[in-house]
Structures are given as structure tokens and as C-alpha cells.
Amino acid sequence: MRFLADAMLGKLAKWLRISGYDTLYETGVEDDELVTRAAGEGRVILTRDTRLARRLAPGGYLFIRDNRTADQFRQVVSELGLEACGPGFFTRCTVCNGELRAVDRESVRGVVPEYTYSVTMRFLRCPSCGRVYWEGTHKARILERLKAAGTC
User: Fold this and answer.
1) In angstroms, how far is the first alpha carbon of the chain from the final one?
2) Selected residue with higher pLDDT from 80 and 146
3) pLDDT higher for 67 or 58?
4) Model's pTM, two decimal places?
């Protein structure tokens, strides 16, 4: 399932990306462009905009009710039957939505902190924006947040 999150749902888009879901998020996009793009790319629109929701056909969008990101994420996972901590977990860039690729450890020397390089054997890089990822304490904290939200 692929998503297009409206301008009010940036944090939700990040959580969906962490869970491995292809989620576009751009600010400053007009509603007409959002609708056209979602239809053309087969994406479900995630919105908190009631005016936009009234224009959309059922099944092509999900109206997000809550203000809190954890509650929003729980709603999407529950209503759409998604797997929050499944095989796609940590496979997308949280910044640009690119699919992460394993890279040779030597290629990130000098890019990541020295200590991180010395204790980490596996690195991932986003081919779109170049951001480098590795498994650290942040992954455990994110998993705890998802568990606390009742989604893992």
C-alpha cells in the first residue's frame, strides 16, 4: 500500500516510512495536484482536511481523526490492516522516502561518527538523498514507541 500524506501529517508520514510504507509527503501542494498525483500513482491520500475529504471517493483516502501522531499511526495501521513492525521495518529513508540500500562499510568511513564506524558493521544509505543509517539505540527506542502505541 502506498500513501500520499497531506501537509498536516508530516510526522505520520515519517512513522509510516519507518514501518516500510512508501509514503510521499510534500508541503505547499495544492489539493488538485495532490488528488491527481495520488490517482496517477495509485496512492491512498491521508488527510485531516475535511474539505479535501469531501471531494474524494471512498477508498481513495483515509481521514485522520486524531491530533497525536501515535494515535494517527494506530488508526492507519488498524483501519488498513497494516503491519507496523513487519519485514519492511527500517527499509525507507525517513527524510525523502527512498528505499535504503546496504553499502560497503568502508564507503561510510568519515561520513558517520568515528565511534559509530568502529562498533557498527552494517550500514544502509538512501540512494536518493545520501543519508546513512545504521542500527543503534534509536531503533530500540522507536520500537518501544511503536509498542507503546499498541501497533507492534
Assistant:
1) 18
2) 80
3) 67
4) 0.90
pLDDT surpasses 90 at 142: no
Bridge-based pairing of strands 23-25 and 3-5 is parallel
Residue 101's φ and ψ, nearest 5 degrees, are: -125, 140
The rounded Cα 90 to chain-centroid distance in angstroms is: 9
Q: What is the mean pLDDT of the chain?
A: 92
- With a cut of 90, say whether residue 125 has pLDDT above it: yes
How far apart (Å, rounded) are the C-alpha atoms in residues 142 and 120?
A: 19
Provide the residue type at 58 as one letter.
Answer: P
Cβ partners under 8 Å of residue 151, min gap 6: 73, 74, 77, 84, 85
Task: For the chain, give every domain's residue range.
Answer: 3-80, 101-148
C-alpha cell at 148: 507503546
